[in-house]
């Protein structure tokens, strides 16, 4: 079993391995899941993202992880934390959280369960001062979930990304400080 980073009641969050690209390509890389994330990716793009995450863990002790459902052992998504690395963002280097859950597991509470664990991990184990999350106004489910987590909209951090569909611009950001999380 690859390195387990976090365990919740129903999920194992483990480090990404090279062999996970095929699994993600098959289970998470669907038109519905990827609709507001730049669309379905080529296999080599997923491999590159996985390589980045593995290097983040090696260099900084955090990155994105695979979400494994304990009851079935199946991949149900991925989530974690990375540095904002889009050169068009005004806050490159900030700690950014994100998540993705496969379509047949939507509305099972996996995003909520995993992201609450990731936020606790980010603040308590990694010691970050605040977190951001990036989405688009069109992705209402995403920003509503950010608000549910206690995050606040930061219009000062909006930016345009030509790699995304014009309907998903500008990219919008939410933030959450340790203090906001602790008093939520």
Radius of gyration: 15 Å
The CATH architecture comes to 3-Layer(aba) Sandwich
Largest sheet: 5 strands, antiparallel
Weakly predicted, low-confidence segments: none
Secondary structure tally: strands = 8
Mean pLDDT: 92
CATH class: Alpha Beta
Oligomer: single chain
What would the principal axes of the Cα set say about the shape? globular
- Helical proportion? 25-40%
The rounded distance between the terminal residues' Cα atoms is 35 Å
Strand order of the main beta sheet, please?
1-2-3-4-5
**H/E series:** EEHHHEEEHEHEEH
The CATH topology is: Aminopeptidase
Number of helices: 6
Strand proportion = 25-35%
Task: Please describe the structure with a list of short key phrases separated by commas or semicolons.
8 strands; 6 helices; globular; N-acetyltransferase; GNAT_dom; alpha+beta; acyltransferase activity, transferring groups other than amino-acyl groups
What would you say about this model in short?
The chain is α+β, with helices and mostly antiparallel strands and about 180 residues long. About 35% of the residues lie in helices and about 25% in strands. One of its GO terms (molecular function) is acyltransferase activity, transferring groups other than amino-acyl groups.
What does this structure look like?
With 184 residues, the chain is α+β, with helices and mostly antiparallel strands. The chain has a single domain (4-183), classed as Gcn5-related N-acetyltransferase (GNAT) (Aminopeptidase, 3-Layer(aba) Sandwich), CATH 3.40.630. It contains six helices and eight strands, in the order E-E-H-H-H-E-E-E-H-E-H-E-E-H. The protein is globular, with a radius of gyration of 15 Å. The N and C termini lie far apart (35 Å). One of its GO terms (molecular function) is acyltransferase activity, transferring groups other than amino-acyl groups. It comes from Altererythrobacter rubellus. Residues 11-179 form the N-acetyltransferase domain. Pfam families: Acetyltransf_3.
């Amino acid at each position: 079993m690859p390195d387990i980073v976090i365990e919740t009641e129903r999920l194992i969050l483990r480090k990404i391995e090279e062999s996970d690209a095929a699994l993600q390509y098959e289970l998470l890389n669907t038109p519905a899941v990827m609709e507001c994330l730049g669309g379905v990716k080529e296999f080599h793009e997923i491999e590159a993202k996985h390589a980045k995450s593995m290097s983040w863990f090696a260099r900084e002790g955090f990155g994105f992880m695979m979400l494994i459902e304990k009851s079935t052992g199946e991949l149900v998504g991925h989530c974690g934390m990375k540095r904002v690395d889009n050169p068009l963002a005004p806050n490159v280097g900030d700690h950014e959280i994100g998540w993705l859950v496969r379509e047949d597991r939507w509305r099972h509470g996996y995003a909520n369960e995993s992201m609450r664990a990731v936020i606790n991990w980010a603040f308590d184990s990694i010691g970050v001062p605040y977190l951001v999350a990036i989405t688009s106004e069109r992705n209402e489910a995403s920003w509503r979930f950010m608000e549910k987590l206690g995050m606040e909209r930061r219009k000062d951090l909006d930016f345009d990304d030509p790699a995304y569909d014009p309907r998903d611009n500008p990219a919008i950001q939410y933030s959450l400080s340790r203090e906001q999380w602790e008093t939520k």
